[in-house]
Design brief:
Chain A: This is Sugar ABC transporter permease. Chain A: It is a multi-pass membrane protein. Chain A: Belongs to the binding-protein-dependent transport system permease family. The structure holds 2 protein chains of 2 kinds. Chain A has helices at about 1-10, 25-55, 75-80, 80-115, 120-130, 135-145, 155-160, 190-215, 220-230, 235-245, 245-260, 265-270, 280-290, 295-330, and strands at about 175-180, 185-190. Chain A is mainly α. Chain A has a domain at about 80-285: MetI-like (MetI-like fold), CATH 1.10.3720. Chain A has a two-stranded antiparallel sheet. In chain A, a hairpin with a 2-residue loop joins strand 1 (about 175-180) and strand 2 (about 185-190). In chain A, helix 4 packs parallel to helix 8 (about 190-215), helix 9 packs antiparallel against helix 10 and helix 11 runs antiparallel to helix 14. The radius of gyration of chain A is 26 Å and the shape is flat. Chain B has helices spanning about 1-35, 55-95, 100-110, 115-130, 135-160, 165-170, 175-185, 190-205, 210-215, 220-230, 235-270. In chain B, helix 2 (about 55-95) crosses helix 5, helix 2 packs parallel to helix 11 (about 235-270) and helix 8 packs antiparallel against helix 11. The chains are: A mainly alpha, B mainly alpha. At the A-B interface, helix 2, helix 4, helix 5, helix 6 and helix 7 of A face helix 1, helix 2, helix 3, helix 4 and helix 5 of B.
């Protein structure tokens, strides 16, 4: 408020109040500079999403384009397939394992690193470096680490530790618990756990970085006050520090959910759709349906479902972030 | 005091154990890459090579060397162009708060959250119509356009930290939009370009979906080559690991030398103002 008042003083000296200048060449330049990006994104993001949505309502399910209207037939057809039903189960299981893994490991490591340790930057770098590698390389590498042979990879270690029947990791056909529901079996496909381990290895450093930034932003006075009140370190963390990390958790969950819904290269390189589609994902299904099966309209329908899932949580999140920013500016 | 020292020891022990776990795949990749095909036994995959050999690396390079160069031709121009666009966009949004600036920012940011499958069929049709399907320029175009949201976000947040007083002082001196950009903003932008550049380079180098959908041999980037090599039944593990290692080296080198800026990009990408 005060800043505005000072700035407005010169223009309030003349007897008649002048209208605030709303337009200037400089602001026009700013808008002109943004225009090409807005046009490009208007076409490549918004236009293409609509176009894709339109394709999903047509009969274009062969190599030759056919834009006759099909209504929701493609969506119904997709939902009836064994493959897409498996995808729904898999994406829920994978997202849950992935987010829980990243958040718990990320928070744990961030708290350890925040203890004013020596070699802090070395440890931090080690936990974050997998993020610099491609998902594809991660998939290839972890297929080797989690080699399904009983006498290879991590299984050698498990056997040395006394596990006589080590898992077959990403090749496992098991689904636990295997509850029949429609065509598919509901449960956690073990093969998917192997993929989730690789994904957590790659992305937990991100959660750690977010939590570390959050921990560093907790005011020292709050911690001091709690200590004076006699809070032990366990109590101090869960009652005082952890609530301060709520916004870090929200941010991490949003970004990780987006990453999880988008996961493609990792699965493609590590397992592919898997036995009975036990590691399949909507992204892979869309790709195969469209480019291997030439069922463009059905592929577009899967893509639209993916987009709607993503928009359902990213739009409210972005709006809330921008609102909060606005409030902070006005203060 | 003794208890504290014990606690500290446990702390370092736990951190070291986790560091070893995180580095374990690196150990396996590097040692496997340095074994010759004949020396590869699954049951000895954790052992160090008895005879160090570069034959796997040589063989992997013969297979993916051209793809590696494709990735360079792709990632370098796409990184430079999208960073420059992000810089002017970020400057406009951070320093010239016109009406509706937030709406514009929201419209741009949404582009970060779309699953690219949702635009893939139209992208391929448009690139085909433009004669760019299957080519690296086509892939550059796509990576630049879909990179605009994140680079704009990084630069907007970066420029928000430049005091408004500096802009106002330059305005009083008669500088306009471009004058302020050249004289004040650009000289302060080095770190912003490093953050945005590293982030974009890593994302574009590592991208697989657009690469596999848009390009055809011999224009495919290195990520596609890695998958092709891994998917081949006839190529042995040591060559697969060597190719995964080579494909990861450029981004890893960038990370090792400029990790601080990589983390800044990471945090900026999480849309916290």
């Amino acid at each position: 408020m005060i800043k505005h008042a000072i700035k407005d003083t010169p223009s309030s000296i003349p007897t008649l109040p002048q209208p605030r200048r709303r337009w200037s060449w400089d602001k026009a330049s700013a808008i002109l500079v943004l225009a090409p990006s807005l046009v490009a994104l208007g076409i490549f993001v918004y236009g293409f999403i609509f176009w894709n949505g339109y394709i999903s309502l047509t009969n274009w399910n062969s190599y030759i384009p056919n834009f006759s209207y099909a209504g929701l037939a493609n969506y119904l057809a997709v939902f009836r397939t064994f493959r897409f039903q498996s995808d729904i189960r898999n994406i829920i299981v994978f997202t849950t394992l992935f987010i829980l893994g990243c958040l718990s490991l990320g928070l744990f490591l961030a708290v350890l690193i925040d203890q004013k340790i020596r070699f802090e930057s070395l440890f931090r770098s080690i936990f974050i470096f997998p993020m610099a590698i491609s998902f594809v390389a991660t998939g290839v590498i972890w297929a080797w680490v989690l080699n399904p042979q009983p006498n290879a990879g991590v299984n050698l270690i498990l056997r040395a530790l006394g596990d006589k029947h080590p898992p077959t990791w990403f090749l496992s056909p098991l689904i636990i618990p295997s509850l029949g529901w429609g065509q598919i079996k509901v449960g956690i496909p073990l093969a998917l756990v192997a993929v989730a381990i690789a994904a957590v290895w790659q992305m937990s450093g991100f959660a750690m970085a977010i939590y570390l930034a959050g921990l560093r932003a907790v005011p020292e006075e709050i911690k001091e006050a709690a200590r004076i009140d006699g809070a032990g370190s366990w109590r101090l963390f869960w009652s005082v520090i952890y609530p301060q990390l709520a916004s870090s958790t929200v941010t991490a969950v949003i970004i990780l959910t987006a990453a999880s819904l988008k996961v493609f290269g990792l699965v493609y390189a590590m397992t592919g759709p898997g036995q009975d589609f036990s590691t399949d994902m909507p992204t892979l299904n869309m790709f195969d349906t469209t480019f291997q099966g030439s069922q463009f309209a059905q592929g577009a329908a899967i893509a639209t479902i993916l987009f709607l899932l993503m928009a359902a949580f990213s739009v409210p999140y972005l709006i809330s972030v921008l609102r909060r920013e606005n409030r902070e500016e006005e203060m | 005091m003794a208890l504290r020292r014990l606690n500290r020891s446990i702390l370092y022990l736990v951190l070291t154990v986790f560091a070893i776990l995180y580095l374990m795949p690196v150990y396996l990749v590097v040692t496997t890459s340095l074994k010759a095909g004949a020396a590869l036994h699954l049951s000895q995959m954790w052992d160090l090579p008895t005879h160090w050999s570069t034959s796997s690396l040589v063989s992997a390079w013969q297979k993916l060397g051209p793809n590696f160069l494709n990735s360079v031709y792709l990632a370098v121009p796409a990184t430079v162009i999208s960073s420059l666009i992000g810089a002017v966009n970020g400057y406009s949004l951070a320093k010239w708060k016109f009406r509706g600036a937030n709406v514009v920012f929201f419209i741009i940011l949404m582009g970060m959250f779309i699953p690219y499958q949702a635009v893939l069929i139209p992208v391929l049709r448009v690139l085909d119509a433009m004669g760019l399907y299957g080519t690296i320029p086509g892939l550059i175009l796509v990576n630049v356009v879909y990179g605009i949201p994140i680079t704009t976000l990084i630069f907007r947040n970066f420029y928000a930290a430049i005091p408004a007083e500096m802009i106002e002082a330059a305005q009083i001196d008669g500088a306009g939009y471009w004058g302020i950009f050249r004289r004040i903003i650009l000289p302060l932008s080095a770190a912003g370009f490093v953050v945005a550049g590293i982030w974009q380079f890593t994302q574009i180098w590592n991208n697989f979906l657009f690469a596999v959908a848009i390009t055809v041999p011999p224009h495919q980037p290195v990520t596609v080559a890695v998958v092709n090599i891994a998917g081949s039944q006839t190529i042995q593990w040591n060559v697969q690991m060597a190719s995964a290692l080579m494909a990861s080296i450029p981004t890893l080198v960038v990370y090792i030398f400029l990790g601080k800026y990589f983390v800044r990009g990471l945090l900026a990408g999480s849309v916290k103002g």
